[in-house]
Amino acid sequence: QVQLVESGGGLVQPGGSLRLSCVASGSIFSINVMGWYRQAPGKERELVATSSKGGSTNYADSVKGRFTISRDNAKTTVYLQMNSLKPEDTAVYYCNAAYYGGRAFWGQGTQVTVSS
C-alpha cells in the first residue's frame, strides 16, 4: 500500500501561482509514475500532469506552458507548480501514484480555487 498526502492548495486570484506537494509513504519502492489529476464540480476527474521515474513528463493541453511537474531525487515527492492560474483551474486536485504493474493509489485531494 502507498499513502499519499497532498498540501499546498488554497485560494488564489487569477494570474496567481500555487505549488502543490504530495509525499508518498509505505510500499514506495515499486512506484513508477506519480502525477496530478483534478475534478471540478459536475465534471469527471481529468489528468493534469504525470512524471515517470525515468524522467518523462506528460501534461494536459490545458495546462501546458503554465504548470510544471517535478519530483525529488528520492522520487517519493511530487510537486505541481501552477502559474498563470485561471478560474477554470478551480478543482480538487488529487495526487496519484502508480506501480510498474499498474496498480494505482490516490490521495484525499486538495482544493484549489481561483477567484477574484
Structure description:
This protein has 116 residues and is mainly beta. Helix content is 0%, strand content 55%. The protein starts with a strand and ends with a strand.
In short:
The protein has 116 residues and is an all-beta fold. The protein has strands spanning 2-7, 10-12, 18-26, 31-39, 46-51, 57-59, 67-71, 77-82, 91-99, 104-106, 110-114.
Compile the SSE list and pairings:
Elements: E1 2-7, E2 10-12, E3 18-26, E4 31-39, E5 46-51, E6 57-59, E7 67-71, E8 77-82, E9 91-99, E10 104-106, E11 110-114
Parallel strand pairs: 2-11
Antiparallel strand pairs: 1-3, 3-8, 4-5, 4-9, 5-6, 7-8, 9-10, 9-11
Computed structural class: mainly beta
Radius of gyration over C-alpha positions, nearest whole angstrom: 13 Å
Please state the overall shape, judged from the principal axes of the Cα atoms. globular
Total helical segments: 0
Would you identify the regions where 5 or more consecutive residues have pLDDT less than 50?
A: none
- SSE succession: EEEEEEEEEEE
Mean pLDDT: 95
Strand content: over 45%
| Terminal-residue CA separation | 40 Å
| Number of strand segments | 11
Largest sheet: 7 strands, mixed
- What is the helix fraction of residues, given as a range? under 10%
